[in-house]
Design goal:
1% strand, mainly alpha, 12 helices, Ferritin
Length: 325
Amino acid sequence: MLGLGRKTKRFRDLSEREILALAISSEEDDAKIYLTYADKLRADYQQSAKFFEDMAAEENRHRTRLISLFQQRFGDTIPLLRREHVSGYYNRNPVWLIENLGIERIREEASRMEADARRFYETAARQVTDANTRKLLGDLAIAESRHGAKAEALEAHHLDADDRAAEAQQAHRQMILTWVQPGLAGLMDGSVSTLAPIFAAAFATGDTHQTFLVGLAASVGAGISMGVTEAASDDGTISGRGSPTKRGVASGVMTTVGGLGHALPYLIPHFWTATAIAIALVFVELWAITWIQNRFMETPFFRAALQVVLGGALVFAAGISIGML
């Protein structure tokens, strides 16, 4: 069902007039999608933006050929028939879902679009009987199948080795700013800041269940706080750090994970067993933070280790000391 009681039509029941109308609207949509990608990429990936502009121009040439044939056979009135009106017809992912992802994901989506279009033209060509229509649909199927080579040629035209290296570097930088940096800040906060309340509760009560509840509350609360703060503090427009929603999710989730790492062992009813495992996991968490800082943030390993271990040790000692008062 579509809309208020409208039913979709099966592809095999389409007339040749409807098949051409569907092909025209599909080419129009694909051209718009490529132009949207071009607009999205233009600021940071100028050469890739030109590539998608050329792909849009190619789709518009296909549309022009289809309209010309339609006018010859059926006149100037093209019925409104879109993908969503035909059951079993391929769909496009919403542009907003793809355009906020990385450039490689956008290129993968473009490749999938061309493969979908080729299959459509091959199926449509088998369904029509008019010789000119079958020829055009067959020609477009071949053109879509060659778009892989065409795309490579366009990329080669617009993107030399230096351009690719620059775009790869920009994509890596964006990934660091959007995902790694907020996630690392969250992991550090969750792993270190929850040490004091969890171990204070553990040594104050000697009760693993109560300690787990304190750890769970501290971890989830810290995750929500960090996530909201990260998302609200910077919309990414000026800083270029990317989507605030993505950064908030990265920060919030990793904060919660960092706290739960040494809270979950207290599901074990034996106090000293749970505590020993929790302490061991603290060292694992601190090592992971050090590795991420060294790997992605290019912080010297020993400096990162000193900062993380020293800070963690101080908070850990404070928690135990308070718990034993």
